[in-house]
Amino acid sequence: MKKEQIQENGISRRGFLKRTALAGAAICIAPALEKVTAAEKAITGKSSVSAATIPAGMAAVRAQRTLSSGKAAFTISAMGFGCMGLNHHRSQSPDEKTCIRLIHEAIERGVTLFDTAESYGYHKNEKLVGEALKGYTDRVFVSSKFGHKFVNGVQVKTEEDSTPTNIRRVCENSLRNLGVETLGIFYQHRVDPATPIEVVAETCGELIREGKILHWGMCEVNAETIRRAHKVCPVTAIQSEYHFMHRAVEENG
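That's the Aldo/keto reductase sequence above. Prediction below.
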């Protein structure tokens, strides 16, 4: 999906947080989506889900939220779909047909942002998402990530790589794997101590101007680094792992 197709935001940050607290992360499960809709009605007094547009018995996400502001503003569905666990890192995985069906169902239920990364199986997850999104790329956005170092397809755990050359290489690979012309958000997966964040931000700014990404973001990063990066190229989103099984961010920021 291209930026001009984004609709106006219809939900506040506070409203989004209240809704996601009710729904959790299971965006493909009908009961969770029903809670999203119910919470929206409780907060706003109405629901943005229209019975005329939703098949009988199908819960859906129709509310939206806007990340960041100004030129960095990005309007997406109030809940997104994290694709990593489909075929990488989370114990047993569904078969490919099931994964594709889940993504299609999420789209039909109103999800417009799907998140993946180069490092999720070294292109494996991106290729799965790309296969699932064939015929749907005008309706959704995809975010991916750069920054880990790989040698012959194997991640070097002791090093990161956010050099401009690697950022561009990962971007081109992601576009090809996903079958899209533009990435919705391109995240730095981890900070690279050897590459100044200002250089990373400038490279992402160039990719934005070239039309290869709409926005950029950062993962697992402290406030000072965010401020430095934002001065060079406005940051749209920050991803940090935070859930019931991982709450370290409450202590280390």
